[in-house]
Write a structure and sequence with these properties.
By secondary structure, the protein is α+β, with helices and mostly antiparallel strands. It has 5 helices and 12 strands. It has a single domain, classed as Porin (Beta Barrel), CATH 2.40.160. Helices cover 30% and strands 36% of the residues. The protein is globular.
Protein backbone atom coordinates (compact mmCIF):
# COMPACT_ATOMS: atom_id res chain seq x y z
CA UNK A 1 0.00 0.00 0.00
CA UNK A 2 1.37 3.40 -0.96
CA UNK A 3 0.12 5.21 2.12
CA UNK A 4 1.85 8.39 0.91
CA UNK A 5 -0.87 8.74 -1.72
CA UNK A 6 -3.40 9.57 0.97
CA UNK A 7 -1.73 12.43 2.86
CA UNK A 8 0.84 15.20 2.51
CA UNK A 9 3.69 15.91 4.93
CA UNK A 10 5.97 18.84 5.64
CA UNK A 11 7.97 19.70 8.79
CA UNK A 12 6.45 16.75 10.70
CA UNK A 13 2.98 18.08 9.96
CA UNK A 14 0.50 15.90 8.14
CA UNK A 15 -2.61 17.12 6.39
CA UNK A 16 -5.18 15.60 4.07
CA UNK A 17 -7.14 16.81 1.11
CA UNK A 18 -10.74 15.70 0.91
CA UNK A 19 -9.91 13.60 -2.14
CA UNK A 20 -6.99 11.84 -0.42
CA UNK A 21 -9.06 10.93 2.63
CA UNK A 22 -12.10 9.94 0.57
CA UNK A 23 -9.99 7.81 -1.77
CA UNK A 24 -8.51 5.93 1.19
CA UNK A 25 -11.96 5.26 2.64
CA UNK A 26 -13.37 3.96 -0.63
CA UNK A 27 -10.37 2.35 -2.33
CA UNK A 28 -8.53 0.84 0.64
CA UNK A 29 -11.11 0.38 3.42
CA UNK A 30 -14.21 -0.15 1.30
CA UNK A 31 -15.86 2.40 3.59
CA UNK A 32 -18.65 4.49 2.07
CA UNK A 33 -19.68 6.37 5.21
CA UNK A 34 -21.15 9.69 3.94
CA UNK A 35 -18.92 11.74 6.25
CA UNK A 36 -15.95 10.65 4.13
CA UNK A 37 -17.45 11.97 0.90
CA UNK A 38 -15.54 14.87 -0.62
CA UNK A 39 -18.65 17.06 -0.75
CA UNK A 40 -19.94 16.28 2.76
CA UNK A 41 -20.63 19.28 4.99
CA UNK A 42 -19.56 17.13 7.95
CA UNK A 43 -16.50 15.72 6.20
CA UNK A 44 -13.83 14.06 8.33
CA UNK A 45 -10.73 11.98 7.71
CA UNK A 46 -11.36 8.24 8.26
CA UNK A 47 -10.17 6.90 11.59
CA UNK A 48 -8.68 3.95 9.73
CA UNK A 49 -6.37 6.30 7.81
CA UNK A 50 -5.24 7.89 11.08
CA UNK A 51 -4.61 4.43 12.54
CA UNK A 52 -2.62 3.44 9.45
CA UNK A 53 -0.44 6.52 9.92
CA UNK A 54 0.16 5.67 13.58
CA UNK A 55 1.44 2.24 12.59
CA UNK A 56 3.57 3.71 9.81
CA UNK A 57 5.14 6.33 12.07
CA UNK A 58 5.43 4.46 15.37
CA UNK A 59 5.46 0.75 14.50
CA UNK A 60 3.42 -2.14 15.86
CA UNK A 61 3.39 -2.73 19.62
CA UNK A 62 2.09 -5.75 21.45
CA UNK A 63 -0.51 -3.68 23.26
CA UNK A 64 -1.96 -0.60 21.59
CA UNK A 65 -4.93 1.59 22.41
CA UNK A 66 -5.95 4.45 20.16
CA UNK A 67 -8.42 6.99 21.50
CA UNK A 68 -10.13 9.43 19.12
CA UNK A 69 -11.08 12.78 20.62
CA UNK A 70 -11.79 14.96 17.59
CA UNK A 71 -12.91 14.74 13.98
CA UNK A 72 -10.10 15.73 11.60
CA UNK A 73 -11.17 17.96 8.73
CA UNK A 74 -9.25 18.74 5.55
CA UNK A 75 -8.13 22.06 7.08
CA UNK A 76 -6.31 20.47 10.02
CA UNK A 77 -2.55 19.85 10.11
CA UNK A 78 -1.55 17.14 12.58
CA UNK A 79 1.80 16.83 14.33
CA UNK A 80 3.28 13.32 14.13
CA UNK A 81 6.47 14.09 16.00
CA UNK A 82 9.28 11.60 16.42
CA UNK A 83 8.69 9.70 19.64
CA UNK A 84 9.73 6.50 21.35
CA UNK A 85 7.37 7.07 24.27
CA UNK A 86 4.42 4.95 25.30
CA UNK A 87 1.87 7.77 25.44
CA UNK A 88 1.72 9.74 22.21
CA UNK A 89 -0.77 12.55 21.58
CA UNK A 90 -1.44 13.75 18.04
CA UNK A 91 -2.33 17.45 18.10
CA UNK A 92 -2.79 20.37 15.71
CA UNK A 93 -1.03 23.74 15.62
CA UNK A 94 -3.13 24.94 18.57
CA UNK A 95 -2.32 21.84 20.66
CA UNK A 96 -5.84 20.51 20.27
CA UNK A 97 -5.70 16.73 20.65
CA UNK A 98 -7.32 14.55 18.00
CA UNK A 99 -6.05 11.10 18.90
CA UNK A 100 -3.80 9.43 21.42
CA UNK A 101 -1.77 6.24 21.22
CA UNK A 102 -0.89 4.38 24.41
CA UNK A 103 1.25 1.29 24.04
CA UNK A 104 3.30 -1.25 25.94
CA UNK A 105 5.32 -4.38 25.35
CA UNK A 106 7.62 -5.01 22.42
CA UNK A 107 7.51 -2.66 19.42
CA UNK A 108 8.67 -3.60 15.92
CA UNK A 109 8.96 -1.64 12.68
CA UNK A 110 8.63 -4.59 10.33
CA UNK A 111 7.35 -2.98 7.11
CA UNK A 112 5.65 -6.17 5.91
CA UNK A 113 3.81 -6.67 9.19
CA UNK A 114 2.76 -3.01 9.29
CA UNK A 115 1.43 -3.13 5.74
CA UNK A 116 -0.42 -6.42 6.19
CA UNK A 117 -1.89 -5.52 9.59
CA UNK A 118 -3.06 -2.19 8.18
CA UNK A 119 -4.68 -3.84 5.18
CA UNK A 120 -6.40 -6.59 7.17
CA UNK A 121 -7.66 -4.17 9.81
CA UNK A 122 -9.11 -1.61 7.41
CA UNK A 123 -10.72 -4.39 5.35
CA UNK A 124 -12.34 -5.71 8.53
CA UNK A 125 -13.32 -2.22 9.63
CA UNK A 126 -14.85 -1.42 6.25
CA UNK A 127 -17.36 -4.26 6.69
CA UNK A 128 -18.96 -2.56 9.70
CA UNK A 129 -21.84 -1.16 7.65
CA UNK A 130 -24.04 -2.79 6.62
CA UNK A 131 -22.83 -6.34 7.34
CA UNK A 132 -22.36 -6.00 11.11
CA UNK A 133 -24.16 -2.82 12.12
CA UNK A 134 -27.52 -3.44 10.47
CA UNK A 135 -28.14 -6.83 12.19
CA UNK A 136 -27.11 -5.25 15.50
CA UNK A 137 -29.54 -2.36 15.09
CA UNK A 138 -32.33 -4.73 14.08
CA UNK A 139 -31.72 -6.92 17.11
CA UNK A 140 -32.00 -3.88 19.40
CA UNK A 141 -34.81 -2.27 17.37
CA UNK A 142 -32.96 1.03 16.95
CA UNK A 143 -31.42 2.71 13.94
CA UNK A 144 -29.27 5.67 12.95
CA UNK A 145 -30.79 8.67 11.21
CA UNK A 146 -31.21 7.50 7.59
CA UNK A 147 -31.06 11.08 6.30
CA UNK A 148 -27.97 12.14 8.25
CA UNK A 149 -26.29 8.91 9.37
CA UNK A 150 -23.44 9.49 11.80
CA UNK A 151 -21.15 6.67 12.93
CA UNK A 152 -17.77 7.73 14.33
CA UNK A 153 -14.77 6.14 15.99
CA UNK A 154 -14.36 6.32 19.75
CA UNK A 155 -11.41 4.01 20.35
CA UNK A 156 -9.70 0.82 19.27
CA UNK A 157 -7.49 -1.73 20.99
CA UNK A 158 -5.06 -4.35 19.69
CA UNK A 159 -3.30 -6.89 21.92
CA UNK A 160 -0.83 -9.21 20.16
CA UNK A 161 0.90 -12.07 21.96
CA UNK A 162 3.70 -12.57 19.45
CA UNK A 163 5.01 -10.00 16.96
CA UNK A 164 7.08 -12.60 15.11
CA UNK A 165 4.50 -12.73 12.33
CA UNK A 166 4.10 -11.07 8.97
CA UNK A 167 0.66 -12.04 7.66
CA UNK A 168 -1.97 -11.70 10.40
CA UNK A 169 -5.66 -12.29 9.67
CA UNK A 170 -8.65 -10.79 11.47
CA UNK A 171 -12.00 -12.38 12.28
CA UNK A 172 -14.97 -11.01 14.21
CA UNK A 173 -15.43 -12.73 17.57
CA UNK A 174 -18.28 -10.71 19.12
CA UNK A 175 -20.37 -7.61 18.52
CA UNK A 176 -22.55 -5.58 20.88
CA UNK A 177 -24.66 -2.43 20.91
CA UNK A 178 -25.77 -0.41 23.94
CA UNK A 179 -28.45 2.20 23.23
CA UNK A 180 -29.09 5.07 25.62
CA UNK A 181 -31.66 7.49 24.26
CA UNK A 182 -30.43 8.94 20.97
CA UNK A 183 -26.88 7.74 21.53
CA UNK A 184 -25.51 4.28 21.04
CA UNK A 185 -22.15 2.61 21.53
CA UNK A 186 -20.98 -0.34 19.48
CA UNK A 187 -18.12 -2.68 20.32
CA UNK A 188 -16.74 -5.05 17.71
CA UNK A 189 -14.32 -7.60 19.13
CA UNK A 190 -12.01 -9.56 16.88
CA UNK A 191 -9.29 -12.18 16.96
CA UNK A 192 -5.92 -11.89 15.26
CA UNK A 193 -4.72 -15.12 13.67
CA UNK A 194 -1.54 -16.42 12.10
CA UNK A 195 -1.59 -19.74 10.25
CA UNK A 196 -4.98 -20.48 11.78
CA UNK A 197 -3.81 -19.90 15.36
CA UNK A 198 -5.15 -17.08 17.54
CA UNK A 199 -2.19 -14.85 18.38
CA UNK A 200 -4.02 -11.77 19.65
CA UNK A 201 -7.28 -9.92 20.02
CA UNK A 202 -8.69 -6.47 19.62
CA UNK A 203 -11.78 -4.31 19.56
CA UNK A 204 -13.23 -1.36 17.68
CA UNK A 205 -15.53 1.00 19.56
CA UNK A 206 -17.89 3.42 17.81
CA UNK A 207 -20.54 5.98 18.67
CA UNK A 208 -23.90 6.15 16.90
CA UNK A 209 -25.81 9.43 16.95
CA UNK A 210 -29.45 10.29 16.36
CA UNK A 211 -30.91 6.91 17.26
CA UNK A 212 -34.60 6.32 16.70
CA UNK A 213 -36.99 3.38 16.44
CA UNK A 214 -36.00 0.74 13.91
CA UNK A 215 -37.78 0.92 10.55
CA UNK A 216 -37.06 -1.90 8.11
CA UNK A 217 -38.07 0.06 5.03
CA UNK A 218 -35.89 3.05 5.89
CA UNK A 219 -32.93 0.83 6.74
CA UNK A 220 -33.30 -1.01 3.44
CA UNK A 221 -33.33 2.30 1.58
CA UNK A 222 -30.15 3.32 3.42
CA UNK A 223 -28.47 0.01 2.56
CA UNK A 224 -29.56 0.25 -1.07
CA UNK A 225 -28.14 3.76 -1.32
CA UNK A 226 -24.89 2.61 0.29
CA UNK A 227 -24.61 -0.35 -2.09
CA UNK A 228 -25.36 1.85 -5.11
CA UNK A 229 -22.64 4.29 -4.11
CA UNK A 230 -20.19 1.44 -3.62
CA UNK A 231 -21.06 -0.10 -6.99
CA UNK A 232 -20.63 3.24 -8.74
CA UNK A 233 -17.24 3.79 -7.13
CA UNK A 234 -15.92 0.35 -8.05
CA UNK A 235 -17.39 0.18 -11.56
Amino acid sequence: MLLENFYSEASNKIHFTRKQASDFAKQIAGDFNPIHDEASKRFCVPGDLLFALLLDKYGVSQKMRVTFSGMVSDGVALHFNDSTGDNIAIVDDKDKEYLRLTRSGQTVNNATLIDNLTRRYVEFSGQTFPHILVPLMKAHQVMINPVRPLVIYESMVIDIDDLNIEEPQLELSNSSLVAEGKRGTVCLKFNLLSNGKVIGKGEKNMVLSGLRAYDEEQIQQLVNGYDAQKSAATA
